[in-house]
Specification:
heterodimer; A: alpha/beta; Rossmann fold; six-stranded parallel β-sheet; six-stranded mixed β-sheet; 12 helices; elongated; disordered N terminus; B: 339 residues; ABC transporter involved in vitamin B12 uptake, BtuC; two-stranded antiparallel ribbon; globular
């Protein structure tokens, strides 16, 4: 008797829960480690958009891996977790297509609206049947860096890759090398072991060793705040400040200070806040009101930050949006 | 074990040399260095090459020294991986966000390490949980606290700080634009730990605790105090590296530092410290650290695929453990023959 009552109560609760869920959209966002400086901005964008979802009775849940040692399979696992937890909509980056595509296909097969963001491009969204792609195109971001440096006359470039095998990092480096070669220069890639990721000293010393072994290099491209700062330090330690010019993806306070002082040539901005914000907004409005965005491929970058516009960007940082 | 390594130190016959804990490490270092010197050419052999691997060795070496002492006493410390970013965040936050004087910020950063080490020591000595598990738990707790406070106070996961010229000169400078001043600190720490382990009576206590904790306690050694002290030392050294990183790279990030966990353990094991405790030496730990650093940097000078470096480090680790066992058997059988 007691047992049936308990079951009945549970059933009522479950019905209640679905009823609430139907009102708002429970959106799951798969992203980077929450303590990764870039991803904390994406997360802030997603959560700011989530304020609207919460006011309608929905929610935004951030799922990020503990580390990047096993990125593809870990991220695929997070996507499946989101499905299992009854997501009404899912946002995810297509970092490692081989490992993550089957999980994304499962999202679409379950009838859950999907937006690909940050990595993969509109090709991934089309292939997987996702609604849209929100983000910078990695290749174009890398290309912008290569083009900027080559046009400034620094024509022998090397791209620092601390996560070999990740599709987006390789696209950055390919774009950088193409941006170099199509503007009259040459490009190469400095591959680091995955254990160097997040270890500034290891990256700095690798950059320095590479520059000493290859004295012709006069331009470098690094991906992410930390690698960029480490690359600048490696250039300094190689005694090449002023002769090797560095562009990096993303920025933080010290990178903006370096651009102001002239120790860094440029930063390529993909505006992570926008990626989180728009991906969540598109899905929330779609689930709650059935709206769509006919524009395919919402580009949030690349934008070049250099000495000419760095002061404006610093104002944006102080406002908390960049 | 302690008496064995000390009597061996007083004799100088080749047999005694072969039984010293750092012999394997010395052979490993010579082989690896010769290998990369042959491939890396004059740049690797010159000052740029030396400073390159010494800079790597200094940071991991400062942490490997106390981690080695802990391992000799039979304990692990995984939490160093989270103390590095925690202390750099504390230092950058105090100096860069609250504008306190550099000295206060540095003391604050180091205090984080001492405090975490104290908690580690207390938990290990007051409970029966193995130190491996205790320090993994503490590591995650510290990681969470670092992230939480950084986002709460600064609203961001990185804090930048431009150090004062004095702080930069002492902790984050590159001598001759190449040699990180941390190398000198590393040698200083090595001298202090050498005195502790091989000259002061505490050294014998550490060996005794690693050999058999119960007997050590029965012999009147204050085992809990020694263990807590060692954990505080490793916390302090990890925090010191965190401070050095702020002064060198002018910013603190809540992530990073995790590579120090396995790297420090590898340096120690390649250096001939017995994983189960009771045997090891400072010289061995220094050699192990240098070997590790040469492999890590050598691959870039030799233009090898960096993953080859990881393979070599892995192989070295296994070889070190194997040769430790061999030397230990040798030592025991030689000692048995004399009677």
């Amino acid at each position: 008797m007691k047992l049936t009552k308990a079951v009945a109560a549970a059933a009522v609760l479950a019905i209640g829960a679905t009823a609430v869920g139907a009102e708002g959209a429970n959106i799951f966002v798969i992203g980077g480690k929450p303590d990764d400086p870039f991803w904390s901005r994406v997360k802030k964008g997603a959560e700011d958009a989530g304020v609207v979802a919460e006011s309608q009775g929905g929610s935004v849940t951030w799922l990020g891996p503990q580390n990047y040692d096993n990125l593809g399979p870990d991220a695929a696992e997070l996507i499946r977790q989101a499905i299992d937890q009854g997501a009404d909509a899912i946002v995810g980056p297509n970092w490692v297509p081989e490992a993550m595509d089957p999980a994304f296909e499962a999202v679409v097969a379950a009838g859950i609206p999907l937006v690909i963001y940050n990595a993969g491009g509109i090709e991934a969204a089309d292939r997987l049947g996702a609604m849209n792609y929100v983000g910078a195109v990695d290749y174009k971001s890398g290309y912008a860096g290569g083009e900027y440096l080559a046009e400034a006359g620094h024509t022998n470039g090397a791209c620092v890759n601390t996560l070999p095998g990740a599709a987006n990092i390789e696209a950055f480096c390919n774009g950088f090398n193409d941006g170099m070669t199509e503007n009259g220069g040459t490009g190469s890639v400095l591959q680091l072991p995955a254990t160097a990721f997040g270890d500034s000293t290891a990256v700095a010393q690798a950059v320095r060793a590479h520059l000493l072994q290859n004295p012709d290099i006069n331009a470098m491209f690094a991906i992410g705040d930390q690698d960029t700062n480490a690359t600048i330090s490696g250039v300094q330690q190689a005694g090449k400040t002023g002769s090797v010019h560095v562009c990096g993806m993303n920025f933080n306070d010290s990178i903006l200070a370096n651009i102001q002082q002239g120790t860094q040539a440029c930063a390529i901005d993909q505006q992570g806040y926008q990626q989180g914000f728009f991906a969540v907004s598109i899905l929330n409005n779609h689930v709650v009101y059935g709206t769509t965005i006919p524009t395919r491929e919402i580009l949030t970058g690349p934008g070049v930050v250099d000495a000419s516009n760095v002061d404006l960007v610093i104002a944006g940082v102080e406002a908390g949006a960049r | 074990m302690s008496t064995q390594s000390q009597t061996a130190a007083k004799r100088s016959s080749p047999g005694a040399l072969a039984r010293r804990p750092e012999t394997g490490a010395l052979i490993g270092f010579v082989v690896v260095f010769a290998f990369f010197a042959a491939l890396g050419g004059p740049v690797f052999m010159g000052a740029p090459g030396w400073s390159s691997w010494l800079n790597i060795a200094a940071e991991v070496g400062i942490i490997a020294l106390p981690v080695g002492l802990l391992m000799i006493s039979g304990e692990f410390d995984i939490s160093v991986g989270s103390i590095v970013p925690a202390s750099s965040m504390m230092t950058a936050m105090l100096a860069g966000h609250y504008d306190l004087p550099a000295l206060a910020a540095i003391c604050g950063g180091l205090a984080v390490g001492l405090a975490v080490g104290f908690v580690n020591g207390l938990l290990v000595t007051r409970t029966t949980i193995p130190s491996l598990i205790v320090t993994i738990g503490v590591m995650f707790a510290v990681m969470g606290l670092t992230l939480g406070f950084a986002v709460l106070i600064k609203g961001s996961t990185s804090v930048s700080y431009v150090p004062t010229p004095m702080a930069k000169a002492l902790l984050g400078q590159f001598i001759n634009n190449m040699f990180n001043v941390a190398i000198l600190w590393w040698l200083g720490f090595a001298a202090v730990f050498f005195c502790v382990l091989h000259i002061s009576p505490i050294g014998n206590w550490i060996f005794a605790i690693g050999g058999d904790r119960e007997s050590a306690r029965n012999a009147g050694i204050p085992t809990s105090r020694v263990t807590i002290g060692l954990f505080m030392a490793s916390g302090f050294c990890a925090a010191f590296v965190g401070v050095v990183q702020v002064m060198t790279y002018q910013q603190a990030q809540v992530a990073g530092g995790q590579s120090f966990i396995f790297n420090s353990i590898m340096c120690v094991v390649i250096g001939g410290v017995l994983l189960t405790g009771g045997s090891g030496s400072i010289l061995g730990i220094l050699l192990g650290t240098m070997t590790f650093a040469v492999v890590n940097q050598g691959v870039f000078f030799a233009a090898l695929d960096p993953n080859v470096g990881s393979i070599i480090v892995g192989a070295l680790l296994l070889a070190a453990v194997l040769s430790n066992d061999t030397f230990r058997t040798l030592a025991l059988s030689a000692a048995a023959k004399k009677t």
